[in-house]
Every structure is written in structure tokens, then in C-alpha cells.
Write a structure and sequence with these properties.
Layout lengths: L2 H17 L4 H8 L3 H8 L6 H13 L28 H25 L1
Helix pairs in contact: 2-3, 2-4, 4-5
């Protein structure tokens, strides 16, 4: 992922976090990563794929909603809870869901190739 893609993803992660009303610390705890790692994601800096995937799952939870994630080796995309947070436009929500699913597919494919 290049710097442009990281910056674009950073904006989406921050928008989603704010839309669901979670602090950076709460997301980091939910993702089981350090606050420093989470801040790196929101700053558009590189982090390990596994940690990024954990963060993406955590912000999709929206404060405890369940998300079904398939095995990394299955090659299929996760089943996301796509409930739109209050205050988010329909268009912004569609973009975030689509791009998150595309990136998550990429992470799954990449992890499968490493094994």
C-alpha cells in the first residue's frame, strides 16, 4: 500500500471512528493493538497487515455489534455489519463499506499467499 492509499484509508478510519463515537483508546483496546499503532493508522503511516485488519474489524463493531469474519485461508471476504452510523451520509457510508470490503479482501488474499 502506497502513501496515497494509506492516507485515504486513514481518512476513512477516522471518519468511521468518529461516526460510531469511539475514542482512539477504545478502538485500540477493541482491536488489541497499542494506541500508538492505532494513531499510526489514522496518521496514514504503515502498520502490519494483521494489526490493520484487527483495527478494521474493531471499528466495524460500532460499540459491540457482532461481525462475522471468515478464515484468512478461506479466500472469501468477511461478512460485515453494514448498519449506517447516525450522522453519516448514505454516499459516505457506501464508499466506506465498499472500500473496506475491497481492502479486507486484499488482506485475506495476501495472508493466504504468505502461508
Amino acid at each position: 500500500m502506497d502513501a496515497y492509499d494509506r492516507k485515504k484509508l486513514a481518512e476513512q478510519v477516522k471518519a468511521r471512528r468518529l461516526a460510531i463515537g469511539m475514542s482512539k483508546e477504545k478502538v485500540a483496546r477493541a482491536a488489541d493493538v497499542s494506541v500508538i499503532t492505532f494513531r499510526r493508522v489514522e496518521d496514514g503511516e504503515p502498520v502490519q497487515d494483521a494489526k490493520l485488519a484487527a483495527i478494521l474489524r474493531a471499528i466495524n463493531l460500532g460499540g459491540g455489534e457482532d461481525v462475522s469474519v471468515t478464515s484468512k485461508t478461506s479466500g472469501s471476504a468477511p461478512s460485515w455489519n453494514t448498519r449506517k452510523p447516525e450522522g453519516m451520509s448514505d454516499e459516505q457510508h457506501k464508499v466506506i463499506v465498499r472500500e473496506t470490503e475491497e481492502y479486507y479482501r486484499f488482506l485475506i488474499e495476501r495472508a493466504s499467499q504468505e502461508h
